[in-house]
């Protein structure tokens, strides 16, 4: 899933984007960002000023009509570990 990409946080920029930190950009939150794409599963939750902020996921594939189609993405991890680093 992470394609050997290190985890990026707002204070540790490990993504490949040279001009910005993807975890800070549009409040995406920490993730295995390679580039600032269309994934923000750890982004701000709740009302936002547009679809590019907050919790969202966009799957891109070859162009085809998805009219009337619902896309669902489920993550069912066997284990979840929350690691908190002191400031």
Automatic annotation (TrEMBL):
Query: What highest taxon heads this organism's lineage?
Result: Eukaryota
Task: Name the chain's protein.
Answer: Fibrinogen C-terminal domain-containing protein
Matching entries from InterPro entries are given as: Fibrinogen-like_C (IPR036056), Fibrinogen_a/b/g_C_1 (IPR014716), Fibrinogen_a/b/g_C_dom (IPR002181), Fibrinogen_C-term_domain (IPR050373)
**Record domain Fibrinogen C-terminal: where:** 1-87
Q: Which species does this protein come from?
A: Steinernema carpocapsae
Q: Name one Pfam family in it.
A: Fibrinogen_C
Q: Which PROSITE patterns match?
A: FIBRINOGEN_C_2
- Mention any one GO cellular component term assigned to this protein in its UniProt record: extracellular space
